[in-house]
Give the backbone structure.
Amino acid sequence: MNISITHATELKTKPTREEEASLGFGQRFSDHMFMMNYDNGEWHDARIVPYQRLSLDPACSVLHYAQEIFEGLKAYRTDDDRILMFRAKDNAQRLNDSARRLCMPEIDVDFNYEAMRKLVQLERDWVPHNPGTSLYLRPTMIGTEEALGVHAAKSYLYYIICAPSGAYYKAGLAPIRIRVEDKYVRAVRGGTGSAKTGGNYACSILAGAEAAKEGYSQVLWLDGEHLKYVQEVGAMNMMFLIDGKLITAPLQDTILPGITRRSVMTLAREMGIEVEERPLSVDELIAAGENGSLQEAFGTGTAAVVSPVGELAYRDKHIFIGDKSVNDGIGELTMKLYNTLTGLQWGRIEDTHGWVTDIDKD
Ligand SMILES: *Cc1c(COP(=O)(O)O)cnc(C)c1O
């Protein structure tokens, strides 16, 4: 399918180098977006158009029954002004995995990559320059059938918007405080936890708000059945270095299969670290914190890359991780993984895994 391009007649003002430092995340959007529609069993009208509001019928299915899936990935500017993407086809693949769970239509992975690439090529001046900044891409699919009734919609809209985003850590990596959630759950067996769908977030907002009131930046979810096994945090998978082994929850239908998670597991193994995907109970985790065998803990996700955890709170227990007097409490492995992954993403380390694509070449 051909992708048509309609250029915006008036361009927005791009952030200056000074403004890039305070861009935040997902606050501003570029001049163009990709769109295509699905009707009568096929995708059609693939187009790049000026960034615009959507016009939706109030009865439209996404607004009532939450048939929505999304992705999140970044385009990175290298020191020599090439624009790279990181494992973008993996995002396209995962979008299809989410689509199947939500009874939504799939999109050819290569075509979807081409759509992202064409859009970023057109928006290349929107990819910010300052260290740690990037152009965040948000591919989104929604059900647009104009009728009530709970069933898979017959029509869909797929679009991709781009948001220039600031460095996640303005002053270097900073350990976060996390509360283990023992009341609300995010995902249950047989549910939609492994799909990137808005509903998973809607049901998590209250827990996040209650934890934020007590000064925690994230909640660590436990499994929905026994409230016993450690799952993941808001938009990050979790890894724990216990007795020299890196432990993360196994992929089941309650865990979002993070691309950063997968990348970190590969890199850690290459660094000689044993990686275990296995159920980790909160009791084992707290015990490891208390007996000193919990050496490091961090979240992994596209936005933060690697996010060190400095404190875990579970009921009345507080586990402190890392020695604040050494590298601000950031563990050696956490730091090494962060540096390696960001080195690959910004093209400073040679990519031997085939993870990085250059939007002008690949
Ligand atoms: C997107 C997301 C992640 C991280 O996935 P990445 O591909 O590494 O960005 C982890 N957990 C949840 C719930 C997510 O939505």
